[in-house]
TrEMBL record:
CC terms in the record's Gene Ontology section: periplasmic side of cell outer membrane
Protein name: Penicillin-binding protein activator LpoB
Record's subunit section: Interacts with PBP1b.
Its biological purpose: Regulator of peptidoglycan synthesis that is essential for the function of penicillin-binding protein 1B (PBP1b).
Family designation: Belongs to the LpoB family.
Keywords, comma-separated and alphabetical: Cell outer membrane, Cell shape, Lipoprotein, Membrane, Palmitate, Peptidoglycan synthesis, Signal
Gene3D superfamilies assigned to the protein according to its UniProt record, in alphabetical order: ABC-type transport auxiliary lipoprotein component
Species this chain originates from: Proteus myxofaciens ATCC 19692
GO MF annotations in UniProt: enzyme regulator activity
Length: 192
């Protein structure tokens, strides 16, 4: 056992001894001072120019709408107190116009001039939501407009579009019977 202990101790002793190999020291070279180098600036992303928003044309919708609503209100086939759905004005003019203001002007003129009653805004929006229609979009297809009016149990629907170019726009309106789909009245007026 002493022999094994002696062998193990000598292995540990020899393993712990570093072998002595002399290496020449590394040569020292003098350095010449240089001018300080500026750190590189981080590359900044290019500044994005915010595009100018399109100019929205200010239109006097009341002056444009009221003559049409007066003309429509004297149509022979209209019943007093009947329910009317006013579709959002559709812009086919290619320019930027405030169609929401036009739609509101139509509703206001109908409530002031005509014997018809308009469907309340909240009822219209909930019906659009129930039918899966967007609240802002005009109903491009007459069948979709009539379907919405039938859902609301309205008697008539008024569909309006703005056509033409910048200085020569025209608003067109069509009043349709919900039950038959017949066009009862249509009118056109220059947008002022």
């Amino acid at each position: 056992m002493k022999k094994i202990l002696f062998v193990v101790m000598s292995v540990f002793l020899l393993a712990g001894c570093p072998s002595v190999v002399h290496q020449p020291p590394a040569p020292i070279e003098p350095t010449v001072p240089t001018e300080p180098v500026e750190p590189e600036k981080p590359i900044e992303p290019p500044i994005e120019v915010v595009p100018t928003p399109p100019k929205i044309t200010q239109i006097n919708w009341n002056a444009t709408i009221q003559p049409l609503i007066r003309e429509m209100s004297v149509t022979d086939d209209l019943g007093v107190g009947k329910l009317l759905v006013v579709d959002n004005v559709k812009n086919n003019s290619g320019g930027n116009i405030q169609t929401v203001n036009a739609t509101n002007a139509i509703i206001e003129a109908i409530n002031n001039i005509s014997a018809l009653q308009t469907v309340p805004y909240t009822q219209m929006m909930s019906a659009r939501k129930a039918l899966g229609l967007s609240g802002e979009d005009s109903l491009g297809l007459r069948s979709a407009a009539i379907g919405l009016a039938r859902y609301l149990q309205a008697d008539y629907i008024l569909v309006s579009t703005v056509d033409g170019k910048k200085d020569n726009r025209v608003i067109s309106m069509q009043l349709m019977s919900v039950s038959s789909g017949e066009i009862l009245w249509n009118g056109r007026h220059n947008v002022e």
